[in-house]
Structure formats: C-alpha cells, structure tokens
Write a structure and sequence with these properties.
Layout: H1 4-28, H2 32-35, E1 40-46, E2 51-54, H3 60-63, H4 66-80, E3 89-92, E4 104-113, E5 116-126, E6 156-160, E7 163-164, H5 166-175, H6 179-207, H7 209-232, E8 237-247, E9 257-268, E10 271-275, H8 292-308, H9 311-314, E11 327-330, H10 349-363, E12 379-387, E13 390-398, H11 426-432, E14 435-442, E15 458-464, E16 468-474, E17 494-498, E18 504-506, E19 510-516, E20 521-525, H12 540-548, H13 554-561, H14 573-582
Parallel strand pairs: 10-11
Antiparallel strand pairs: 1-2, 1-5, 3-4, 3-6, 4-5, 6-7, 8-9, 9-10, 12-13, 12-16, 14-15, 15-20, 16-19, 17-18, 17-20
Helix pairs in contact: 1-6, 1-7, 6-7, 8-10
Length: 583
C-alpha cells in the first residue's frame, strides 16, 4: 500500500521526467520535423511495458504507442533467448510489433534498481528518411509491401551492455538519405532516453522500489476508475458511424478508392467496446493499412479519452495504462484497421486520423454536447532534392481543421485528433532549404455552416528554387467533413501543381514521388471542418463579424445563415427576420 499523497508526488515526478525527456530531444535534434514540428514522443513505462507517463507536449500518435513498442521489444528479445541488461539501448520500428509505422523509430533505455529491471525510458520520433524506395518517409504512397517501406529494426541493440554497436550505425548511415540529419536525430533520441532513465532510477532510489511499484499500481488503478466512472455515466447502448476515405482516387481498381471505415461503439456498465467490423479489407499492395497496435488502438483510446474525460471539464487526467483497461477494440484480421504482414503501412497517418473521427461520430450519438463536428484531415508533402551528391529532405505537415462544437466555432488551421504537431516557421524553411513559401493564409468562405461553424483550413504555397522532387500523402479530397445536428458539411481539400512553364495540374490526395523543376509551385488548399447545429440559429452578430473579417462572404451569409448584411456592413434586421422566418 502507498498513501495517496506519496502516489501523487510520484505521479508528478514521472510526468515531469517525461516532459523533460521531450524538451531535451527537441533541443538536441537536427531536423525541423522534431525540433520545430515536435513530431516525437517520450514516455516512461514499467518493466512489463505498461505506460506510466508521457510527454504532454508531444503528439499522441508518437507517445501513445510507446508501451506497445516496449511490449513487443520484450517479446522479440525473449523469443531470441536474449535479455535486457544495464547499458543497453534498443532500437525498434516494427509496425507489426507495436510501432505506429516504420519511420517512427523508438530508442528504449532500461532502468535498473540494483540488479532488478524496474522500467524503461523511451523516445520515438518521425525521421525524415528510413531508406524507402523514394526520398522521405511520408508521401510513400506506392510501396507494394512492408519491405519497400524502408529499413526494419526489430529490437536491435545499438548499445549492448554499454558498448556501442558500430555496425548498426554504419548500416544506418549507408542506407538512409540525409543521413547526417537522421542519424543526428537518432543520437539525440539515445541521449534524451538516457536522461529519462537516469531521472527514473533516481526517483526509484529516493522512494524505494516497493513504494515506487505500489505507487505505479495505484496510479493506474486511479486512471482506470476515472475512465470507468465516465463510461458509467453514459446510457447503455450501441452507436454506429461510417466514414468514407479517398484511398487512391486515380486508381482504376475500385478496391483501392472510396473505402469505408466503420466504428460501432457499445457501452455496457462501465466498459466500452469499439468494433471496427465493416471496415474495408486491407489494400495488399498500397500502404494505407493501419497497424492495429500503434495506430488503431491509439486512435480509439485517444478519442474516447478526449470525449469522455475532457481536461477542460475534469482537470488534469493522468495518462497511463489504466485509461485503456475499460476499452475493448475489435478489428477483423485482414481489414484496413488490422492488416496482415507484409501489407504495407507507412501511409497510415491520414486513415488513422479519419478512424478517430469516425469513433467520435459514433460517440456523438451518445454525448452530442461533448463532441465537435467532422474534422478536416491533414496532408504531408515530402520535398526533396540533391545538393551536389547530398540529399536534402523536408517533410511539411499541412494543417487540417476542427468542426464546430457546442458554444464555439471549430479551430482553424490546426492538427487534429491524434496528431499534435506544430507548423514549421517560414523563416526556418527558407533558411535551410531551396524552397520559398509564397502564401500562408486562412482559406475563406468554405467552412461548414452551423450555429457554430466549422474551422477554416489554410492555403499554403511552396515553390522549388532548384530542381527536386515531391510526394504527397493526404486525405479528404473526395468526401466532405460531416456536419452535426443540422450543421452543414465542411469543404474538401485541394492540391494544385503550378508548373514554371505555365501549366497547371490538379492532384489527388496521394501522389507518388515525382520530379519537379525549379519554379514549380505546390498550392495546397486545406479542408474546412463541419458545422455544428442549425445555421439559422447562429447569432447574427457572429455572422456579421465573420463577414467583416473576410471569413464569410455576404452572399454566403445570406445563403447559409439567412443573414442579410447591408452595404454599410450592418445586419439588415428586417430582411434577416423575413428570410429566416421564410425558411
């Protein structure tokens, strides 16, 4: 047993260590995807791989899978007859062994108290290149199997009992583009994970192993109780939702485009089951399949937690294994949400985010006041080229948007749901890369209409200053974000390639690597979120403010909201009342 005060102090210490690991990694990293976008994870887990704490500032899709990485790493070592020892640093990126996808590489450092293993400190990070068939690690949308997606490391000791395994580091440098950046980031991960291990070992020494373990058990039990109480407050029932994703819109094969994601949420007592039966079969030779452990489970857990245990209502919620215990996930083997090896998975990011949105759509039927309308999904473009004989690679994450929510409009131009990265500053891009950012602004007059309108996407334009190449991983060009309770659907995304010779080409949401010329420009128009509630109930002054800000045109205000704006910018109250009354 442990008293609640001691358990709470240990919880705070674990959370602070995880945050420190994350900041140390950010400050030591070379690439902007970690240093600026914060596309990384950091977490502490116990000796069994059960999550204890994660870095609050990192993305859930990076920190959330870390317990799965560790559990599969332990199983892999055990199957080899190997063990974890002091001084080890283990690299793992197996998407069928806990990793979210291959470019998200974990570096795991064990924590010992004397001779006894007590836990692990781990970091994950999205690396700019992992040796796939084309440059980059997002935008790889044409890999035919797991082997085409880059290097696979399954519980490889890059440090073995304190001795650096130089052969592995040579393999990395010889098989990865932009290796100075990538290997530099990996070494930063090792250093950050070691710092976390040192802090965790000191914490155990301070309180003693029995007290530490009792506190960890108590913290997980507490998180489980919080989740079960939130679930118990729901009415028993079953709610189903379906979302269509683009897949490969330009494919002649109907099995590769317009693919359904289905989530059926059943609540009974203080437990929830999320059944993904009905989701489209896996695409055997295209990498939009989602690993069950590392992507699908994180998408489900995050959505249920965010909807039922909103920190704005419940305050600080400890993030550990206990939160996941009341949630059961079912996904038939061989579907998009539970593929079978060697189906490729590297482009699982956008489908997984859409799956999270589908779970929220199902929960909306149970708790309509606790959700937002449909999200506008994200897009990633991998820009690349050669400077002499040296590769440069840059991944740019193009924001999406949230749908409207009770009492507030959707958030504009942000990462959504299980993504939580930041944008890259234009100054950083133009300082380090042969790219020029010519537009960065909100996309106006397309948000889903509602009592609370959807959020706005962004408009971004990138011009190549030298010859190079690009590939695109995206979603949401065909199917609009859902409106809720009478709200209108949001707007789809668009992507144009404007060539230096004056030609223009509309591109689908997924584009395999293609060469581009100096002067070519990618113009990305982000999606807008769905509206929440009847647009005719929107406050007329809120509509007027949007018109004055240029976010909504007078014609849209009249058509969608029944609000007439006069030439003086004021609401014509009589005309508005008549128009709304007629509808």
């Amino acid at each position: 047993m442990v008293d609640p005060v001691t358990a709470s102090v240990i919880q705070g210490a674990l959370e602070n260590i995880a945050v420190e690991i994350g900041y140390k990694l950010m400050r030591m990293s070379y690439s902007s995807i970690i240093r600026e976008s914060e596309d990384f994870g950091a977490a502490l887990v116990d000796a069994e791989g059960r999550g204890l704490a994660e870095s609050a500032q990192s993305t859930p899709l990076q920190s959330g899978p870390i317990p799965g990485y560790v559990k599969h790493m332990l199983a892999t070592l055990a199957a080899r007859g190997d063990a974890v020892r002091p001084g080890d640093v283990i690299m793992h990126n197996d998407p069928y062994g806990g990793a979210s996808h291959g470019p998200d590489v974990a570096f795991i450092v064990p924590v010992f108290h004397g001779e006894e293993l007590v836990g692990f400190s781990a970091t994950t990070a999205h690396h700019l290149d992992i040796g796939a068939l084309t440059p980059g690690s997002c935008g790889i949308v044409d890999a035919i199997d797991a082997y085409a997606e880059g290097l696979q490391f399954k519980a490889i000791k890059v440090w073995d009992r304190g001795v650096r395994n130089e052969a592995v580091w040579h393999i990395l440098r010889d098989n990865i583009r932009a290796s100075d950046l990538v290997v530099g980031d990996m070494e930063a991960q090792v250093a950050a994970s070691r710092i976390g291990a040192e802090r965790m070992a000191a914490l155990v020494a301070q309180y003693g192993l029995p007290t530490f373990r009792a506190a960890c058990s108590a913290l997980m039990d507490h998180a489980e109780r919080l989740m079960r109480q939130a679930i118990a407050a729901l009415p028993d029932g079953t709610w189903r939702a379906e979302t269509m994703i683009d897949g490969y819109l330009d494919s002649p094969d109907p099995a590769k485009r317009d693919l359904p994601l289905v989530a059926t949420v059943t609540k009974k007592g203080d437990g929830i089951t999320v059944d993904l039966t009905g989701t489209a079969p896996q695409v055997k030779d295209r990498p939009i399949n989602m690993p069950f452990t590392g992507t699908v489970d994180v998408a489900v857990w995050l959505t249920v937690r965010s909807v039922l245990l909103d920190t704005a209502v419940h305050g600080h919620i400890p993030v550990n294994e206990g939160l996941t215990r009341p949630i059961t996930i079912i996904a038939p083997k061989g579907c998009l949400a539970n593929p079978e090896f060697p189906a490729p998975t590297i482009a699982r990011f956008c489908p997984g985010n859409q799956l999270a949105d589908t779970v929220m759509k199902a929960l909306a039927q149970a708790v309509p006041e606790q959700v937002s309308a449909g999200i506008g999904n994200l897009k990633v473009i991998a820009f690349s080229g050669l400077k002499g004989n040296t590769h440069w690679v840059h991944m740019e994450i193009f924001e999406g948007s949230y749908g409207g929510r009770p009492g507030a409009d959707g958030m504009d131009a942000v990462d959504t749901l299980y993504a939580n990265t930041r944008n890259n500053p234009i100054e950083d891009i133009e300082t380090h890369l042969p790219l020029r950012v010519e537009r960065y602004e909100l996309r106006e007059d397309v948000a889903g209409a509602g009592r609370w309108r959807g959020g706005l996407g962004s408009v971004r334009a990138f011009r190549f200053l030298t010859d190079g190449g690009a590939s695109v991983e995206g979603e949401g060009h065909q199917h609009r974000p859902w409106g809720f309770l009478g709200g209108g659907a949001g707007q789809t995304a668009r992507l144009l390639l404007q060539r230096a010779d004056g030609g223009e080409e509309a591109l689908p949401s997924k584009v395999p690597h293609r060469g581009v010329k100096a002067g070519d420009l990618f113009l990305c128009e982000g999606p807008a979120g769905g509206g929440y509630g009847d647009p005719l109930l929107r406050d007329t002054e809120a509509v007027r403010a949007d018109v004055l800000d240029g976010l909504v045109s007078p014609a849209t205000a009249k058509r969608d909201y029944g609000v007439v704006i006069g030439v003086d910018g004021a609401v014509d109250a009589a005309a508005t009342a008549a128009l709304r009354g007629a509808r």
